[in-house]
Amino acid sequence: MLFRQRRTDAISPLRFLTSAAIGLLCLWAVSACRDAAQSTPAQQVEPPNTATVSATATGLPEIGKLFSWTISQKVAGFSHSADIMPTEPFLASGHAVALPRASSDLVARVNSLAYQFGKNPDGATKKNNTIDDYMAHNQVTGLLIIKDGAIVTERYAMGLDERTVWDSKSAGKSVVSTLIGAAVKDGFIKSLDDPVDRYVPEMAGTAYEGVTLRNLLRMSSGVKWNENYLDPKSDIDTDVACMASRVANCTLNHLKSLKRARRFRIGPQVPQGTVWHYSTGDAFISGLVVQRATGMSLAKYLQLKIWQPYGMEANGVWWLDAPGGVGSGGGGFNATLRDYGRFGLFVMNNGVLADGTHVLPDTWMRDATTYTAEAVVPKFGPYGVYGYMWWHYPAHDDNLNDPGPLVTGIAAPLPYTTVNAGMPAADREKAMIASLGRGGDAGDWTFSAVGVYGQMIAVNPRENLVVVQWAVWDKPSPSCCNKSSPIFDARDQYDERAVFVNAVTKVLH
């Protein structure tokens, strides 16, 4: 995905939006975005010159061309991972937790909601967007809204249905983060302050040596990485080429070749834990930590700790880097729409099962959704936009109205943040109000797993709400960080998605 972040190939105190796997937006400095788009990783490891397995014979797209897939190819590819990639299944128990249908009143409320976004042909602000408008604007292939444990809306498009197993893209990073929590609870991981090379010894002697698991999860490793999906020389493009090659450890070998980021390109190295920079590389290693610490694959550990105990309805699959290889921590989680929703309910309840079993540490989801000072984006996310591979994405009406962001109007405390840590609660609230221009809002409590091309699991524990979206956006982010046109355009589907989730939150309150 694309999103606002700090520069790490040429780190400066300015935050900016650059390309990355959710996925978000190209925001603050045009020059910064241009630099990010044109940067290339040092000593990039080329994938082996091995013929990729072609899916064209079956009419499916080739994974190595992922970032140039058409909409129809995305629909086919995202719904047929097991046919175009090496995968490993994770199996349901056969005893699914029920998802009843919500009351007709709640259904009617959602069907009649209207939200403000974009402009009418005459240039006036459009204030009457409907749920149908939203699905059309965002090329949504699946939409699920769960309130108080019941399905309010379940919609499919473009030939998909309740049996479809869909690729999460980077939303799978949040599943990996949750498995890290389970491994901590089980004692396989002793502490998030352990260095990564304790669990993945191949990282010793590399730029990742000594980086803590906590800083991996927060994507503040300080390791240089280019996540621009539209740059053929980026690290993420190399990662996709490695996956297409089906050569074991291709991605790991590339990660071993990376360098530490430097301030202003030639300045001192960036210490870990000081700058947030989105990196699928950090997530891949986090997934490898789970596998090395537990002695199980991502699919098997997910099946053991969450999928079967919670009561998921259908089998899913997880991408592997090669046949019989390791699971990809950077993405590759595939499941049905309802089971995405059930996973949202699982984390909303902090991983506590129906029988009272605690799968996660008692404060895990609070800690995972505590946004850090390193991930602050001025005038956009002043208390941070990232936790342990979970997002907070404020709702902005594509900069048509000031001040932003748009809110639900439902009063709530501000969410957890390390900004102004140690300050008395009342004083911190005042300081944040001074920064935001408003008090806390229920929408601030929505945290999300986000994947490129429009994938999302949004969770709001204060409102007991889960919103899941599958989509096939034209580009990773329709308005940002195109290498040939790096001009910021605030009219972005990430913004509309956040505005829509706030509208749903409000109408179902």
Can you offer a commentary on this structure?
The longest helix is centred in the middle third of the chain and has 15 residues. This protein has 15 helices and 11 strands. About 55% of the residues are buried. The protein has a single domain, classed as DD-peptidase/beta-lactamase superfamily (Beta-lactamase). The protein is α+β, with helices and mostly antiparallel strands and about 500 residues long. Helix 6 packs parallel to helix 10. Strands 5-4-11-10-9 form a 5-stranded antiparallel β-sheet, with helices on both faces. A 4-stranded antiparallel β-sheet has the order 3-7-8-6.
List keywords for this structure.
509 residues, alpha+beta, Beta-lactamase, five-stranded antiparallel beta sheet, four-stranded antiparallel beta sheet, 15 helices, 11 strands, 29% helix, disordered N terminus
